[in-house]
Automatic annotation (TrEMBL):
Keyword Ligase on entry: no
Name used for this protein in its record: DNA-binding response regulator
Species of the source: Sinosporangium siamense
GO BP annotations, alphabetical order: phosphorelay signal transduction system; regulation of DNA-templated transcription
Listed SMART domains: HTH_LUXR, REC
Pfam family, one: Response_reg
Stretches assigned to the Response regulatory domain: 4-122
């Protein structure tokens, strides 16, 4: 199945570079380019891409506002947004996660990293490596911890699912969680999937934000 990609960035050279990289892949098709967030929203509705590469800072409408309009924080959106960033993890990027973005891609990523990022997000996974997750946690600590506690409860998760969510929020990969809990990696994947479904979350990225904002995990 071909992954349809929309590129949203106000720098023409960046868009061209990404288009060239992705155009060499038989399973990826760049269906459009947007120079600002407003255009990205319009083209997304018109072209129905699977993945939107979204720059953070753009004129007319920024990437955060565009992500909110496209996703609304809901798990059922047909779009998946991959935020393009220089990785100065500020509050703006956290808001992108809250809006439903599936992860981050460094603007200086290699061609292969770009291609793999698109495939990972298109497959429904979050692009948050453990090292990236730990940086997010560190930034969450710097910003002062949960500022908008969620009214949702985790009581309808099983004890094991709650354990898995806690470890996901601490930046552990599935294999590390499996070793910590003495279960198989496949079992961890099953627990993660059920946990996301029960909480109505899109992916691992939203699970991390949820765990901190609900108070299940405290920055330390």
């Amino acid at each position: 199945m071909t992954v349809r990609v929309l590129i949203a960035d106000d720098q023409g050279m960046v868009r061209t570079g990404f288009r060239v990289f992705l155009g060499t892949q038989p399973d990826i098709e760049v269906v459009g380019e947007a120079a600002d967030g407003a255009q990205a929203v319009e083209l997304a509705a018109e072209l129905s891409p699977d993945v939107i590469l979204m720059d953070v800072r753009m004129p007319v409408m920024d990437g955060l506002t565009a992500t909110r309009k496209l996703l609304g924080g809901e798990p059922g959106s047909p779009f998946k947004v991959l935020i393009l960033t220089t990785f100065d993890l500020d509050d703006y990027v956290f808001e992108a996660l809250r809006a439903g973005a599936s992860g981050f891609l460094l603007k200086d990523a290699s061609a292969q990293e770009l291609v793999e990022a698109v495939r990972v997000v298109a497959a429904g996974d979050a692009l948050l490596a453990p090292s990236v997750t730990r940086r997010l946690i560190a930034e969450f600590v710097r910003l002062g911890g949960p500022r908008s506690p969620s009214p949702r409860k985790v009581g309808h998760l099983t004890e094991r699912e709650t354990e898995v969510l806690t470890l996901v929020a601490q930046g552990l990969a599935n294999l590390e969680i499996a070793e910590r809990l003495y279960i198989s990696e496949q079992t961890v994947k099953t627990h993660v999937g059920r946990m996301l479904t029960k909480l109505g979350l899109r992916d691992r990225a939203q699970a991390i934000v949820y765990a901190y904002e609900s108070g299940l995990v405290r920055p330390s």
